[in-house]
Amino acid sequence: MTSLPPQPLSPLDGRYRAAVSGLSDYLSEAGLNRARVEVEVEWLITLTDRSLFGTSPLREDDKDALRALYRDFGADEIAWLGEKEAVTRHDVKAVEYLVRDRLSTLGLDAIAELTHFACTSEDINSTAYALTVKRAVESVWLPALREVIAKLKTLAAEHRDAAMLSRTHGQPATPSTMGKELAVFAWRLERVAAQIDAGEYLAKFSGATGTWSAHLAAEPDTDWVEVSRSFIEGLGLGFNVLTTQIESHDWQVELYDRARHVGGVLHNLATDVWTYISLGFFSQIPVAGATGSSTMPHKINPIRFENAEANLEISGGLFSTLASTLVTSRMQRDLTDSTTQRNIGVAFGHSLLALDNLRRGLGEISLAQPVLDADLDANWEVLAEAIQTVVRAEITAGRSEISDPYALLKDLTRGRRVGGPELAEFVRGLDIGDAAKERLLALTPAGYTGLASALVDTID
């Protein structure tokens, strides 16, 4: 058997590439290297702006030319770094050599020795990872999450009065509305999204073991902590002053735990909507030309929600592994984090793919109100809660002498289907006040939704 031409091993780079390609600008190897070049260049500019070691601030055109190294980073730089790393066997050293090479091209050899000055690789890496993850989350992943939340809010408002039979433990229970049930998911997702919005993206820039030792050896009269803090904060990141050789990754642990939490809520959404489809509460809108089954022409399978469910399980497992691995580093440094962090894009990729499917899936369903109405009309026994609660209130008010209203309703309804006429006859025979009796006689399963409709407004 002949070998295939080179193929992507991951479905994220093959079948699903179009859905997740926005992440590759940031969380691919090339995206990371571009950020590394950015950090190296901006550190050079910072050092010369402060006229350290007899340098002078660069002219603005020289700064622009330097910044073009990462702003115009592309195929040539990717290829150059690939060839250089094959020799150096060190990715950050290859980036340093790239910057030095371009400095020579630009006629800036005089400051070449300030490239990577007093830096350990993790100064560059922690800053580059913070930049790329921050940009990927804020520019790609969070907007996709907010699209799903917005769709849920729209559906919640649209179906706020759509009465439906609830099912607790899979059994008929106190009715709600479809709008309120979807609003629950929107509220849950908004809450965790707000936590992610408020999260930190931290970097360190303090040398080989976090002590600024080399910096002080070269220039003892400079406040290197202030220089480093100003540099990192100038990049839009938070500064971690107290570290080992690495930034301790706690901000990453927090982010990935929250991203996993989002995935858990989305997984719950996917399985619930799938179940509502199976119950007939939602019908699926046919997509022209699509095939549901290779042998059963009538089928429209809920594939969007099944795809989302599976990808959320994959991303959740990866986020959990990232969080549990990155929280630990042996003494001042080990390399377990290096290969682990290369899977950040994979975790967010599967999550983004799930978000894409959920957004599409929520736009391809239509509420089948007649099915909801029929389900409610077949389960009048759910009004037993209302009846026994009203009886309790009547007993407390001195308008009834019933001894055990819960047991009375349990005997009538538990494990039995009770129709409207039968329930009405039962109510008429109750020892309660006339006003309470009239309220109960007017009640129907479809009308027993409490504040469900009004609760939809909570999400705004």
Automatic annotation (TrEMBL):
Keyword Manganese: no
Coiled-coil region: none
Domain Fumarate lyase N-terminal: 15-308
InterPro entries: Fumarase/histidase_N, Fumarate_lyase_CS, Fumarate_lyase_fam, Fumarate_lyase_N, L-Aspartase-like, PurB_bact, PurB_C
Residue intervals of the Adenylosuccinate lyase PurB C-terminal domain: 329-449
Top-level EC class: lyase
GO MF term (any one): lyase activity
E.C. no: 4.3.2.2
Keywords in alphabetical order: Lyase, Purine biosynthesis
Top-level lineage group: Bacteria
Pathway membership: Purine metabolism; AMP biosynthesis via de novo pathway; AMP from IMP: step 2/2; Purine metabolism; IMP biosynthesis via de novo pathway; 5-amino-1-(5-phospho-D-ribosyl)imidazole-4-carboxamide from 5-amino-1-(5-phospho-D-ribosyl)imidazole-4-carboxylate: step 2/2
NCBIfam families: PRK09285.1
Functional summary from the UniProt entry: Catalyzes two reactions in de novo purine nucleotide biosynthesis. Catalyzes the breakdown of 5-aminoimidazole- (N-succinylocarboxamide) ribotide (SAICAR or 2-[5-amino-1-(5-phospho-beta-D-ribosyl)imidazole-4-carboxamido]succinate) to 5-aminoimidazole-4-carboxamide ribotide (AICAR or 5-amino-1-(5-phospho-beta-D-ribosyl)imidazole-4-carboxamide) and fumarate, and of adenylosuccinate (ADS or N(6)-(1,2-dicarboxyethyl)-AMP) to adenosine monophosphate (AMP) and fumarate.
PANTHER family for the chain: ADENYLOSUCCINATE LYASE (PTHR43411)
Official protein name in the record: Adenylosuccinate lyase
Organism per entry: Microbacterium koreense
Lineage: Bacteria, Bacillati, Actinomycetota, Actinomycetes, Micrococcales
